[in-house]
Write a structure and sequence with these properties.
With about 190 residues, the chain is of the alpha+beta class. It has helices at about 1-15, 25-40, 45-50, 55-65, 70-80, 85-95, 150-160, 170-175, 180-185, and strands spanning about 100-110, 110-120, 125-130, 140-145, 150. The chain contains nine helices and five strands, in the order H-H-H-H-H-H-E-E-E-E-E-H-H-H.
C-alpha cells in the first residue's frame, strides 16, 4: 500500500510541476501585433523594448553563426550587448522615414503563424511577420520583401565577418580567409 501511495504522489506531483506548452492563440498574436504597431507609432521605446525578446533573437542568430556551443554563447553575449538599443533604432527609422505601422492580420509564412505588420513610409511600403512563441513577446521578424528572418540575416552576415574557418558558413563552403573589403563594408 505504501508503494501505491508513493506512485500516486509522484504522478500527481509531476503533473503539477510539469509546465504545459500551448501555442499562442490568434487573439494573443493579434495583441502582440497591435502593441508592436502602437509602440512604433507612439515612439514608445520602453514599450517596444519590452516586446522584443532579444534573448530569443540572439539564440536564433547564434545558431546560424556557428554550430560550436562556445562560439554561440560568445556570439549571444556580444549580440545582447550590441542590440540593447534596437528599439531606439527602430523608432528612429520610423521618424526619419515618416513611417506608420499597421497590424494587418494573423498570417502564416514558412510554417510560422504570427501578426503581419505593414509599414507605410513616405517612400513606400513593407511587410513584416512577427514570430511570437509565447503570445506576449517578439522572437524574430520575417521581412517579407527580403524573404528572410532577421535572425538569419544577422547570423549569416556575422559569420562572414569572423574567421571563416570558425563559422558554420565557412566550414560548409570551405572558406579559410576573411574578405577585408566585405568586413569594411559591413563596419
Amino acid at each position: 500500500m505504501t508503494m501505491l501511495r508513493y506512485l500516486l504522489f509522484a504522478c500527481t506531483f509531476s503533473l503539477i510541476t510539469t509546465p504545459v506548452y500551448s501555442a499562442p492563440t490568434d487573439a494573443d498574436l493579434a495583441e502582440v501585433g497591435l502593441k508592436y504597431a502602437d509602440a512604433l507609432n507612439m515612439h514608445d521605446v520602453e514599450a517596444l523594448h519590452g516586446l522584443i525578446n532579444l534573448n530569443a533573437l540572439a539564440l536564433r542568430a547564434a545558431a546560424l553563426f556557428s554550430d560550436d556551443q562556445r562560439l554561440q554563447s560568445q556570439y549571444k553575449r556580444g549580440f545582447l550587448m550590441g542590440a540593447g538599443d534596437m528599439a531606439d533604432r527602430m523608432i528612429e527609422v520610423m521618424k526619419i522615414e515618416q513611417g506608420w505601422a499597421h497590424f494587418v492580420r494573423i498570417r502564416e509564412i514558412d510554417g510560422v503563424r504570427g501578426p503581419l505588420i505593414r509599414y507605410d513610409y513616405a517612400e513606400g511600403t513593407n511587410y513584416v511577420l512577427l514570430k511570437s512563441t509565447d503570445g506576449q513577446s517578439i522572437d524574430d521578424f520575417y521581412v517579407v520583401s527580403d524573404g528572410n528572418w532577421t535572425s538569419a540575416t544577422v547570423g549569416v552576415l556575422s559569420s562572414l565577418l569572423v574567421s571563416p574557418s570558425r563559422s558554420l558558413i565557412g566550414r560548409v563552403f570551405g572558406l579559410d580567409t576573411v574578405d577585408p573589403a566585405l568586413m569594411e563594408y559591413f563596419q
